[in-house]
Design goal:
InterPro entries: Alkaline_phosphatase_core_sf (IPR017850), Sulfatase (IPR050738), Sulfatase_CS (IPR024607), Sulfatase_N (IPR000917). Helix content is 21%, strand content 21%. It has 785 residues and is of the alpha+beta class.
Length: 785
């Protein structure tokens, strides 16, 4: 018999056809679904075919991979940052958000949705469906302590929604802000199990911190640092960049497998400080807030009533006496404060524009109607972290150093641009949270914890433009997603028994405006600010000031308030004196809930918590050696040269034409230091929040061949942030010296440490970043004294 030889391409085609037919048949018969196991990941399925001695008497069968339940929707969770209840036009605010308006007009507005009052804990609650203390995230990573609820190390027993979706066959992605990885774990040595890719997200494009510079962001793709492909002058902005990446990811998924649902978590750094936006967007609001924050509260309040966002009989909460009145401000102060809020308004409007591009792309999907969008407008209330006076150098303010109005107005034309890091004063934060009292960080009151939410799902939601007023919390989002997709929460994930979900599904509200309340009780706590909601009553205790965390009354001098929010939507009337028994009942109930959800120990030490020893890849070393390529190292994983004497010596190999570039830099335009060579001259520059910049230029050029460049700092001592003397050496010969009267005590900023380049925001404009070193850096040794 003559042997027939098929071309290789035909054999491959026939093999693929056979695989396709077999797998499709098997898929129909034995599809793995979320209903047949309470453990994730699913165990490998048993082989359903037959194995004989040879392939002739055998039957193949492909294993089935986990597949989302039939008709499961795409799920997109959008979470903005630091946006108050009364800021967006969608909820009665003065800042136009037409894309959010459009989504709400085709979906639902929720006006009694709650967060934790601070970003990292809110995000932990959102992603896990458990209360933030149960998720190890009682407060922020930078303030972490070694108590289980305050490590900010999300336990494996509280698996994220990303992991549950992924193990059930949905591709998952995370774009933007990640403030849920402890900052001491965000360096190149990890560990990476608490990075987004370790928390169940197939793809991550964003930054690992509470904030980032929007023009010079510290961006990671999965676990690898990447740099923007253009400069701010060429039009770069991180908000646009991450939106482009999100659209591309989504379109690629649907191009390859259009029927397969996807899960996306889209979390911009906007509108967290620094408030970065181009002048084009800022100028749209020129003069629109000259009436000041007190009048802005009244304008927003009246608009909210007219729109039905708040009840017609809701009162405006009393003005906070700790906030200066607008009329008490000088003309120069009013000018500066208006500029800061015009800039913020531009930033938020620009953010709406970019999110609108994402939503437009969603609407082009083949299964757009079966896409559930849950858009949470802020992870807490508006931020008062700009202090009483506002700032154009946010990190300077967070280090406790103020600037004069004259200093600030010198850079008025630059506000919102790459050379500033602006944040508005507290008065605008209170206006942004209208009609509620208090602000971000203050978990005791709705100004800190009540945020708008818009939900869209065209296939299911028919009450277009409806308002929902059930009392809800971030922990209710995961259960709702699970019910919407038909996926069950497993009892075991990655071999670890799971804590039960603390939230409940509010899917019933999608189709019924009068759906029964799912949440009768909810505790709140951040920084010892506390509240308890129970069946229409709220007991509250405001403990610390968000612009002065070190001011607290002491746990023995606490004053509690009581609100009946069935009749008082906006917490405007304290009825504690009229109902002392009810107040005591709720106070006692708070103690029970606090024990149940692992809130203790309460900690009101304020900024002192920053000094609490934390895990570090550095250990207790005082001497460090770095080599070329050590870039994008977070400040917490870099040698701590603050509040001490130190030396840095670099061994360089140069040629006559390869001497220039950065040797080592940390921080950015707001504050930091850089050791570099320019035109052959070694130079050290220390930037103390732009107000004192010391530059030491060598009196001699760097010689050819192997050479040493050393900077020695002798610290004055006597406390934090004191001055000292910098001395520059080349081959152990003194070539320059300068004294500085004050140094950075807390953090250099939101940028990173690098060898051989100044990535991101440059410490100085004396060179064009990253100004990579031309020669060879053999090693850089830093010794702390």
């Amino acid at each position: 018999m003559k042997k027939i030889i098929f071309p290789l391409s035909l054999i491959a085609f026939l093999m693929l056809q056979g695989c396709k037919d077999a797998s499709e048949t098997k898929h129909e018969e034995d599809q793995i679904s979320s209903s047949n196991s309470n453990k994730l990941p699913y165990e490998d399925p048993e082989f359903q075919g037959k194995i004989g001695r040879t392939y002739k008497d055998s039957e193949m069968a492909w294993p089935d991979l986990p597949t989302p339940p039939k008709d499961a929707p795409n799920v997109i969770v959008i979470l903005l940052d630091d946006v108050g209840f009364g800021m967006t036009s969608t909820f009665g605010g003065s800042i136009p958000t037409p894309n959010l308006d459009k989504l709400a007009d085709n979906g639902l507005r929720y006006n009694r949705f709650h967060t934790t009052a601070i970003c990292g804990p809110s995000r932990a609650a959102l992603l896990t469906g458990r209360n933030h203390h149960n998720s190890g995230s009682g407060f922020l990573a930078e303030w972490a302590t070694g108590f289980p609820s305050y490590t900010t190390m999300i336990p494996r027993s509280t698996a994220t929604v990303g992991k549950v979706m992924k193990y059930n066959g949905m591709n998952t992605s995370w774009f933007g802000k990640n403030h849920n990885t402890p900052d001491w774990e965000t360096s190149a040595v990890g560990p990476f199990d608490r990075w987004p890719t370790g928390l169940g997200f197939d793809y991550f494009y964003g930054f690992n911190a509470g904030e980032t510079h929007q023009y010079y962001p510290v961006v990671f793709e999965n676990t690898v640092p990447v740099e923007p492909d253009k400069t701010p002058e060429e039009g770069y902005h991180f908000m646009t960049d991450m939106t482009d990446k999100a659209i591309s990811w989504m379109q690629l998924q649907k191009s390859i497998s259009p029927e397969k649902p996807v899960f996306m978590y889209f979390a911009p750094g906007a509108a967290h400080a620094p408030h970065h936006v181009t002048q084009k967007w800022r100028d749209q609001f020129k003069g629109k807030f000259d009436h000041g924050w007190d009048k802005e509260r009244e304008i927003t309040y009246e608009r909210q009533k007219k729109m039905g966002i708040i009840p017609a009989d809701a009162k405006l909460s009393p003005r906070n006496e700790k906030v200066p009145t607008w009329d008490s401000r000088s003309a120069e102060e009013k000018k500066f404060y208006s500029l800061l809020y015009e800039n913020f308004a531009g930033f938020l409007a620009f953010t709406d524009h970019e999110v609108g591009r994402l939503i437009d792309a969603v609407n082009q999907l083949p299964d757009a109607d079966n896409t559930l969008i849950m858009y949470i407008v802020g992870d807490n209330g508006a931020s008062a972290e700009g202090g009483l006076e506002g700032t154009i150098n946010e990190i300077k303010g967070l280090n406790g150093i103020s600037s004069t109005i004259a200093e600030n107005l010198e850079k008025a034309d630059e506000i919102g641009g790459p050379s500033t890091e602006p944040h508005f004063p507290v008065g605008w934060a209170f206006a942004g949270n209208t009609p509620f009292p208090w602000v971000k960080q203050v978990a005791s009151h709705f100004g800190g914890t009540r945020n708008p939410m818009v939900v869209s799902w065209p296939k299911v939601i028919k009450d277009k433009g409806g308002i929902r007023s059930q009392f809800l919390h971030l922990i209710d989002v995961v259960p709702t997603i699970l019910e919407a997709t038909g996926i069950q929460m497993p009892e075991v994930v990655d071999g670890v028994a799971q804590r039960p979900l603390d939230g409940k599904s509010f899917l019933s509200t999608f189709t019924d405006a009068d759906a029964p309340e799912i949440r009768k009780t909810q505790y709140f706590e951040v920084f010892a600010n506390r509240a308890l909601y129970h069946e229409g009553w709220v007991a509250t205790h405001q403990h610390t000031l968000p612009w002065r965390q070190d001011i607290a009354p002491g746990f023995e001098d606490e004053v509690w308030q009581l609100y009946n929010i069935k009749d008082d939507f906006s917490e405007a009337i304290d009825v504690s004196s009229e109902h002392p028994e009810k107040l005591k009942e709720l106070q006692d109930m708070w103690e029970v809930e606090a024990e149940k959800y692992h809130v203790f120990p309460l900690d009101d030490r304020g900024s002192a918590r920053l000094a609490v020893p934390k895990p570090s890849p550095l250990g207790d070393r005082k001497s460090f050696t770095f080599y070329e390529g050590a870039t994008r190292i977070p400040e917490t994983a870099a040698p701590n040269t603050k509040n001490t004497s130190w030396t840095m010596e670099a061994m360089l190999e140069t040629t006559p034409k390869a001497k220039d570039g950065v040797i080592n830099a940390i921080g950015g335009l707001g504050a930091g230091y850089t050791l570099y060579v320019k035109d052959g001259y070694p130079t050290f520059l220390y930037n103390f929040f732009e107000s004192d910049i010391k530059t030491i230029k060598s009196t001699k050029k760097l010689p050819d061949g192997l050479a040493s460049v050393k900077i020695d700092f002798k610290y004055d001592g006597g406390g934090a942030g004191k001055g000292g003397v910098f001395t520059l050496f080349v081959n152990n010969e003194k070539v320059g010296e300068s004294r500085i009267e004050a140094t950075v005590a807390g953090r250099y900023g939101i940028d990173t440490f690098g060898i051989g380049e100044d990535s991101g925001s440059p410490v100085t404009h004396n060179y064009k970043a990253p100004f990579k070193y031309q020669g060879q850096i053999k090693e850089v040794t830093i010794d702390l004294k």
